[in-house]
Design goal:
389 residues, alpha+beta, FAD/NAD(P)-binding domain, eight-stranded mixed beta sheet, 13 helices, globular, binds adenosine-5-diphosphoribose, binds P-hydroxybenzoic acid
């Protein structure tokens, strides 16, 4: 087989890129290790920047998003005594949309079938070849049969554990990582949200987040120790701790119910440079990971894909090599600013082992400053809605 671009990974980044290239008349084939059902089963967050929703509107893959997405003009920081509302609409003129990122993936998959975007699922032993030349190819096994796809470019959208980043020669690569000394226990329940907007809480016991998927389905998180076992957290204990950490004014609005999903995930900050080498590009989680505090994961994948689509379109349709040469630097500039915001909000809102009373007072003073400063709130707001491309 031959195509113009092989995309490794059919998660949200790969699917979004495939659709955008198709819309530009650029042939692409996606090669995905897992089944479509497995991809849909990934637990994902639920806040979309306009960086992403604009692309979905542009593609016309927004019918459910328009019908079910919840526009949010603000969110809240809780310090144990009050809610500090960050009015992102008033401060930035923009908003975010609450809509499950799993639903984004589902919509992209449905549109792929309707539009003839070629996706090969359950591809085994996907291997990259010839990335330092201009005739790279990918080999894999489909139903046990060896296959090969030749292309002009390969894009690694294969997530944190995929092969693309590993294919980058060690002498050009540099990785930056911070692993946080705690995790997030997440619970999904078919109960109405406790607040119409998200609440990020900083409490002496630790961080908590009240989010949602719809007006009838809630998503909550609490910070737990890295070695915590899910068995130690029966539903009632989770609900009790959420009531404590979200504060007395919110606790009374929490509707309890059985968890339909409950899991613990670690937090890390990670960036891999460069995001291009020869004929290989990286986009999304294959190149960077953020702690979920700032809800930047999928939104950063969207900006990578937006930059890469412009670059590949210039190359194939205008014979312009400049944009592909600039891709890595341009994408990384936005990645690092989102990494900074995610690290800063994580540092502000979580309890770190070994925190001294002075450290805690610094966190409380930071929150008190934010409560009293339009400038501080504007800084948070412009990062939360997403910095411009
Ligand atoms: N061969 C082919 N496909 C692979 C391989 C491989 N060897 N390894 C991984 N993949 C596939 C995975 O099965 C997955 O479907 O690559 C895809 C990567 O998808 P994600 O991990 O979801 O990464 P990405 O598409 O970059 O999504 C970015 O979405 O919901 C958010 O928080 C999430 O930050 C993440 C963001
Ligand atoms: C979620 O709804 O899953 C969610 C929302 C905001 C975050 C992280 C996760 O910062």
């Amino acid at each position: 087989m031959r195509t113009q671009v092989v995309i490794i990974g059919a998660g949200p980044a790969g699917l979004l890129l495939g659709h955008l290239l198709l819309a530009e008349g650029i042939d692409a084939i996606l090669v995905e290790r897992a089944s479509a059902d497995y991809v849909l089963g990934r637990i994902r967050a639920g806040v979309l920047e306009t960086t992403l929703t604009d692309l979905l509107h542009q593609l016309g893959i927004d019918e459910r998003l328009n019908a079910e997405g919840l526009p949010h003009d603000g969110f809240n920081l809780a310090d144990g005594e009050r809610l500090i509302r960050i009015d992102v609409a008033a401060l930035t003129g923009r908003h975010v949309t609450v809509y499950g990122q799993t639903e984004v993936t589902r919509d992209l998959m449905t549109a792929a079938t309707e539009r003839g975007l070629q996706i090969i699922y359950e591809a085994a032993d996907v291997t990259l070849h010839g990335i330092e030349g201009d005739a790279p190819f990918v080999t894999f096994r489909e139903n046990g049969v060896p296959k090969r796809i030749d292309a002009r470019f390969i894009v690694g959208c294969d997530g944190f554990h995929g092969p693309s980043r590993q294919a980058m020669p060690a002498h050009v690569a540099q990785a930056f990582e911070k692993v946080y000394p705690f995790g997030w226990l997440g619970i999904l329940a078919d109960v109405p949200p406790c607040n119409h907007e998200l609440i990020y809480a900083s409490h002496d016991n630790g961080f908590a987040l009240a989010s949602m998927r719809s007006n009838t389905r809630s998503r909550y998180y609490i910070q737990v120790p890295l070695d915590e076992k899910i068995e130690a957290w029966p539903d009632d204990r989770v609900w009790d701790e959420l009531a404590v950490r979200l504060g007395p004014d919110v606790a009374g609005n929490i509707t309890r119910g059985p968890a339909i999903e409950k899991s613990i995930a670690p937090l890390r900050s990670f960036v891999f440079e460069p995001m291009r080498h020869g004929s290989l590009f990286l986009a999304g989680d294959s190149a960077h990971i953020v702690p979920p505090t700032g809800a930047k994961g999928l939104n950063l994948a969207a900006s990578d894909v937006a930059y890469l689509t412009r670059a590949l379109t210039a190359f194939f349709n205008a014979h312009d090599n400049d944009a592909i040469a600039q891709y890595s630097d341009r994408a990384l500039a936005r990645v690092w600013k989102a990494e900074r915001f995610s690290w800063q909000l994580t540092s502000l809102m979580h309890r770190f082992p070994g925190t001294t009373p002075f450290d805690r007072r610094m966190q409380m003073a930071d929150l008190d400053y934010i409560a009293s400063s339009t400038a501080a709130q504007t800084t948070i707001a412009e990062n939360y809605v997403g910095l411009p491309l």
